[in-house]
Amino acid sequence: MTVSTSSTKLQGRQLYDAIGQPKTIVAPMVDQSELAWRILSRRYGADLCYTPMFHSRLFVNDIKYREKMWNSQEDGDPEYDRPVIVQFCANDPEYLLQAAKMVEDRCDAVDLNLGCPQGIAKKGKYGAFLMDDWELIHKLIRTLHDNLKVPVTAKIRIYDDWEKSLEYAKMVLDAGAQFITIHGRTREMKGQATGLANWKILKYLRDNLPKDQVFFANGNILYPNDLSRCEQETSCDAVMSAEGNLYNPGVFWTATDDKDKQFARVDKMLREYFEIVRSLKGEGSRTAMKAHFFKVLHAFLNVHKELRPTIGQTSVHAPFEEWDKIVKQVEAIVEEIYKQPNIEELDVIVEGPVEHWGGAYKKVPYWRCQPYFRTVDGEKQNTRLLKVAGEKELIASSAEASEKQKRKLEEEKASEENNKRKLEEEATEDENASKRKTA
Fold this sequence. Notes:
This protein is α/β, with parallel strands linked by helices. Helices cover 46% and strands 12% of the residues. An 8-stranded parallel β-barrel has the order 1-2-3-4-5-6-7-8, surrounded by 7 helices. Helix 2 links the parallel strand 1 (24-26) and strand 2. The radius of gyration is 21 Å and the shape is globular. Mean pLDDT is 88; it is low at 377-402.
């Protein structure tokens, strides 16, 4: 029989204060918020980082999976990887607890993924698809709350119904979650139908939850100045970013208006990230490298297309010398760009007019890190012009936009293929186990 530890650990606002009252947070992402990326993101202003989403059953049963995803000698190291929250997806309280016990000594909290909207999560009955089973969610969170040394937190999505969303959030907190992160999108809002996150419902939820509740907002962060706008409009304690951070780690930089921090040159950012990966022993950072290269370079590769197949055909397990050649190619190209006599005129950030959603798009030189623009409000044809300084062509037609989306999907595939097979096998196992229970 386990002994409850819920009364002996930091809770709520105490925990938030103990980890430094973070304001900027790297979101948990499948295969993308691994150690190297967390280290890089902290250098550019991230106060708190979440690990990638780990599958609890695989983490317990498959030692190769566990060692790949979590290096017990590096991940969670107090010198360079704290504060950190480890996230798991799960549908079995015992497996979740076993997995969490394996990391509790090297993290500040354990988070339950209740936000993944992908088909694999539906098949495996985890992530956002647990929204149909509040009783199970309560049991999962309560099991961790009662038995872990560290606190439990949760990341959720909203329903279309505001009142139901509020009751859902209250249930998650009642179960024992000390922080709650709310993504302002429903689970149906994904892919081409992603659309804009709803900050108004986030404000409503914030106002109707206990005043001292630690509340993180997630969604719609493209630029550093969106952070303060989100905080003001939602009254959140901190702002979390996933995709915005992946394409531009400088999205969290608010200490100064230094464009070399907020929109770093891709050659500088790529070199810095690559050297971090090269310095680590864990496999997780190595296998995530290709996907990060594509995202950091996404605007750059729209112009220098010749690099795309080179990156795509280079194995993540290839010698570091092969990847170093790619970094050097990027460095050489950018060096030539900066030899242009009018570079000072070209190398500027220009802000556009305020849009209906409250923010403004920025015109960023293609050789600098910048956000990826998703289709607005789920429309398949996006008429917004995507401008890049120094480019002769504008990506404006729907055909070109479709081609860009196709390339993005190809890039995302590189980051998903590592764990897809095992996750599918585990989802099938979960599905079969569920059938056996109801038989």
